[in-house]
Each structure stands twice: as structure tokens, then as C-alpha cells.
Queue: 3 jobs
Job 1
Amino acid sequence: MSFIADRVDAALEWSVAGSFTRVGSALRRRLDHWAPLDERSLAGRVVAITGATSGLGLEAAWAFARMGATVEIIARNAAKAEATCVEIRQATGNPKLGFVVADTGDLAALRRAALDLVERRPAIHVLIHNAGALDDLRQTSPQGIELTVASQVVGPFLLTGLLLPALRAGAPARVLWVSSGGMYSEPLSVDRLEMSAGDYQGTTAYARAKRAQVTLAELWAKRLAADRIAVHSLHPGWADTPGVARSLPRFRRVVGPLLRTPAEGADTLIWLAVDDGAPLQESGRFWLDRRPRPLHRLASTRRSDTPEERERLWSWAVKKSGLVI
């Protein structure tokens, strides 16, 4: 069965669409005999997650709450965060949900939120970078950074560093980055990360940010190995979320019923957060459907991924975020 599962998985990966749609998750679930996650207990564990008021993040927050975790939501909209916490508390009977207010693109707000979190939760076991949006119009953060890069690369990088004391206290801990298959189309290039107003394209900016996320996850994994903090990135597949409906309406119409449900898209994220096997035994991997995946599908992106460019990305992130390491 393992041989058959591997062959089917390889065929799905080759097809791309078969791999990323609900077809891939359904076949892999059966052939790999995925263990159910809803029977796990997360009592005593603290999970901090961005982007948890809708889509995949909301699905994950519900799952963690049902398992008994303490869930801390990092959200830019206080009213939505409060409503989300109230709804989950009432439905699950788990009172241990809280939130802090910060847009992941606003570095000053993230610093305030991190101080609040560390004060209330001196030990954090899982940090999830899930917030992200694909915008057609170029915007800048309060610190003057192009907003896609600020909210999905610089902000999460800063938040990881600021929460390191709590993550070390919660070790073995995990840091998870929700990336996208869109990163396969873009090479690693620090100079091209912040697109100018003249050449800005939302899908390209998003894909470049996602490539940077995956690379930074690998770099963090090496630096935090001695601290027993595992770092992973993942691709949720093509899921039907409010973000897709808003940003990619044509894609949503074309793919239609083949899109994954939010629960199917969030499965690997939840698995990486709660399973004490492979997610803790190795670090720095990129996952889809509970299997590690290659970082490149194109020779052009593979050539760009040099040690020198990786070091440039790390130095750039340190400088842009103002993080003292």
C-alpha cells in the first residue's frame, strides 16, 4: 500500500491541479490513512495565530479550541476578534480564547501585541503565521514598506523574533508559516520583493512574498534547532476561502467545486501544530497534505536559491523589521 500511495502521490504532484484541489487531499487521506486529529488533547498548550477571524485560520482556531488549547488570536479588527472568541467559547465550552489587536503589516502594533502576549502567555507552544491577502492595488504599511511584503514577510519575521522567549519557554515548540503554491512561480530575489507602483501586480507580489516566507522558515529552522523549536511552512492547496472569493473570483469560478473546503485546506496546518511525530522530529520542511514537498518545480527558481541570496534575505528582513537578534 505504501508503494501504491507513493505512486498516486507522485502522479498527483505531476498534475498540479490534481494535487492542489480536493481530489489530492481526498486520495491522500485514504491511501496514507490519515489519523484523525479531533481526538487529540491540547490541554495546557498555547497556540497564537494570525488571520484567525476567517478562512483557514478560523477553521484552525475552532479545531484547537475543540482540543482544549488556549488560543490567542492576533487580528487587526478588534470587533471581529472579540466576536470570534465569543462564538468559539460558547460553542466549544472552552473559555481559554483571547486576542490582541495588530495588523501584521504594522511593525509598531506588532511590538505592542507581542509585549501583551508575552506578559499574559509566558510560554507559547505554537505560533502560526496565517494572515495574508492578495491585493490588486499597491499600498504601503505605516513604516513605508510595500504592504504585501510588510504583512506577510517582515511582520511575521518580527513577530517570530519578539515571541522567542515565550516559544523557548514552551519548547518543544513550533512556528508555522502558511504559504502558497503560488511561490513555485517566483525565484528568490531580495531586490524584486518590494514591487514599485509602476510594475505592481498583486499576484506576483503575493507569490514573491510566499517564496520569501518559505525561505525564511528554513533559515529560522536552522537557527532555532538548538532551542527545540521546529519551524515549517506549508501549502494548504486551493481552498475556497473568503480571500479567494475576494481576490481571485475568476479562478474560483473556473475551479469551482474542485476547490478544497476550509477544513480540507487547514488539515495539514492543524496536523503540523498538534502531531508530536514528524512535525517535531524534523524542521525546516515545506508541506502539503501531511507530506514534505520540494521547494522548486522550475529550474529558474532553483538557480536563484543560492546561499548568498538566502543570507541577503535574512539581513534584509532584520534591517526592515528592526529586530535585534
Job 2
Amino acid sequence: MLDGAVAGLAGGGAYAALGLCLTLMFRLVRVVNFAQAAIGVIGVYGMALLADAGLPYALAAPAGLLAAGLVAAALGWIMARWFAEAGADQRSAIAIAFLVGLLAVSFLAFGTHPRRVPGPFGGALLTVGGVTVTRAAAVCALLAPALAAGAHLLLTRTAVGLRLRALSERPTTAELLGIPSRRLAVGTWAATGALAAAVLMVVAPQQSADQSSLALMVIPACTAALVGGFRSLTGTVAGGLGLGVMQGVLAHVEDLQQYRDAVPFAVILAILVWSQRREVWDAAR
């Protein structure tokens, strides 16, 4: 069971990192970006295509990150240009349309078959007490807290972070003060898109890298973000890592392994029911 928990750190770290992207997007540009992982898929498959063509990984990976960032920037520009005044629920619904569109584009551009994704983090890192820790698990487990700390410092200690917080909390006032809202919004989309691609580049070589399964990693990422209330970076990291560990443990229990993929939905349901408990109790009284 301990082996399963350690193995789940790779997925949990990825959920936490993608959840951080979702949390930042919601806090800064008022959208639950359901296309977050699908944007990363474009970068991962672009990198794999270049690597198959003979380009060294050291060049193919940055090219994939750039592609994901450009795609995300284009989507962010569309959102900022035509849906700047829309509410968070409307913008999130548009993000679902982006998800479907990106998957269609990905299937047309890269085909429908899973692709081998190269990566530098394969193999075991160390073995402690009979438990093997892989490189991918270690990178993912460390990446999420590092990203949370970096995002916190950016938002609280830099001029760019001050402008982003002003944009998220008082967008009209920020524009009147001369803060370039559209540029910052597009930059937020681009940065989180490239980050999503980087996360998937770590985990994709360790599993069957088909576009659909990678793009649907946004569901457990949403679960992690929901644990943090789409506000808390620390809560999001804890939610993602905890979810990965739970799935890893279930995968090593023969009678329960078939339910591991249902864990994110069960957690989402439990959080939503708990968040509505006061309204239900008040109505009952």
C-alpha cells in the first residue's frame, strides 16, 4: 500500500500543479479554464512530433512550451477581446468550448493514436525501505509546492503581482488607473498554458499518452482547485497530492482498483454537498 501511495505522488503532483493553474486563472481572470490540460496537450504532442523528427529533446521541449503558450495566448486574447464583460460562469462555459475545439484540432494535427512521448525523468530515483521513488514522482511532488511558493511571491512581492491583484479585484478601477488589463490577461493565459505543457511533459512519458486522457486530467485538477476553494494555493497543493495518493493506494487494492478513477468525482460531490449544507439545513428548519 505504501508503494501505491508513493506511486500516486506523480499523478498527485500533476493534479496539484494543474490545479494551481486553474486557481490562478480563476483568481486573476475570472474563468475556470477547463481547456487548461488540452492546451498542454498541444505542447506535449508538438514536442513529441519534433523529437520524432530528430530534434534533440533540449530543443523540442522549449518549442512545445512555446507552442502551448502561443495557443493559450490566442485563447486569452479572444476571451479578453470579446468576453471581457462576461461573468465567470459564462467565461467558464466558453472554456469548455475551447476544450472541445482544442481536442478536435489536436486529433486533426497529430492523429488519433497514442504517441510515444520522450522525457528525461524516467526510471527510479532511490529506494527507501523497499519503496521505490521514481524521478517523475519526485519532480511532480516537489514541483507543485515550488510553483505555489513562486506564485505567492509573484502576487505579493512584485509590481506585476500588484497589478494582477488589482485587475482581479477591481478591473474597472485598474483600467482607469492605466493598468494594461488585456495585456496582463493574455500574459496570464500564456504563462499558465506553458506551465500546463511543462507538467504534462513530466507525466506523459510515464503513461499512455493519448490526447483525451491527458486533456481530461483537468477533472482531478479541478478537484484539487476545489479543495482550495479556487483561492488557496496551499489548499490546492494539498488537495492534488492527497488525491494522487488516494488513487495510488486504491490501485494496489485488488477489490477497489476499479474505482480509482471515480475518486475525483466523489470528492467533488462531497465538497459541493458540504458547501451547500447550511442552505439545506436552513430550508429544512
Job 3
Amino acid sequence: MVYAGILAAGIGSRMHRQDLPKQFLPLGEKPLIINTLEQFYVNPNIDKIIVVAPHDWHQFTEDMISKSDTMDTDVLVISGGLNKTMSVKLIVDYIEKNYGIGDDDILVTHDAVRPFVTQRIINENITAAREYGIAGTVVLTNDTIVASTQKDYITAVPKKSEMFAEQTPQTYRLKDLDSIFVQAEKENDVLESETELARLCIKQGRKIKMVRGDVSNMKIINPYDLEVANALLAEKKL
């Protein structure tokens, strides 16, 4: 079984909208999250989709999805956690409780606000996770990255060839992911404060296979990003 976990539990404060979380804002003629979900509806490798939504927007999310064409894909909504790591754990817990976790089960986790993910990226994530256990989507950075261990000064300039920007999907063999959370609990790692699941994987000595992403697989964070995304969508329709 291949599950897609769509991470939509954030509020999106940088969008500066008090009335509506950014994943529900319109992109083209549909809500942003629906544009994202459609990339998983059309993928024949995806068996079931679990959307994690803000608790206060759970019913709203269910209603929005029910009004869209899910293309006969099995979609359900659960309430999310305080951060991405907690939301992914809630997905794993839900799957374990309701379906059980099989040896070959895969979970593809993806930001609800990355609507331009390609079928190639999704499929390569699934293939890599099956072979290596964990896969992460990345792109080479165009800019030189600088680091600072002090507030006002550059303290390091890593080699540009070694710097990548993280995207999603991040994809896991479910049994491996479940064991990561079990180990984290044994080591008293506080998931509420661990915002990056990949960092937790590396801490436990896990290797993450890189899948090359695409610059078009952008994350919509602020009003400017939404303007760019609408322009990209309009261009795709030409």
C-alpha cells in the first residue's frame, strides 16, 4: 500500500491573511490544496491519501475535498500536530491503528502548498523509498549559502556544490518510519520541538536517498509566491 500524507496543518501566518489559512486560498480556479491533491489523484501508484488539517479547520477541509473531484481516490482528513514531525507521526499512528503497517507499505509526505510537484518526482520518491527506506527531494541552490553561528556575522561559506535546498515529497518505508518514532521516544527526543524529521533521521544514523526535485516545485509561503504560482498556472494552460 502506498499512502500520500498531505501536510496541511499550518496556518500560514506569512501570507498575512487572518480569515483563511494559505492552503485554502484560491490558486487559479481552485483552492491551493485541491491543486496539490490533484497531482496525487492522478498518480496510479497512490492507493490512499491522508490529509492533516488544522484542528479548527478539520470539517472545512473535509467539506472542501468532498466538493472536488477526487477521481475515485480514497481521501480522508485527520487533525494535525504542532509541527510537520508531529503531523507525520499522527499519520503513522492513524495508519497503524486503522490498517496496520505492512512490510511493503510506503508513505509519501508532501506539503499542501507545493501544487506543482511532478509525477516524476512522486514516482522517483516511491522507488527510492522502496529501495533505500527513506527518500528526500532536493534541488541544487542557485545562490551561495552562508552560515552564521553569531547573529551579525558570516562565520562559514559552505561549498556551493554541497548545498541543496530541501523540498517535498519526503518518503518512507512505513516500518522504518515507525521505528524512527519508537527510537525517538526511547531517546527522549521531544517531537514537538523537532521541526525537521530529516534531522531526526540523520541523528539516528539513517541515510536519506536524495531525489532531484525541480525549481517549479515551489512552496507557496507569502503573497508574492501566490502571485508567481498563479502566473505559472496560467502559463501551463496556454
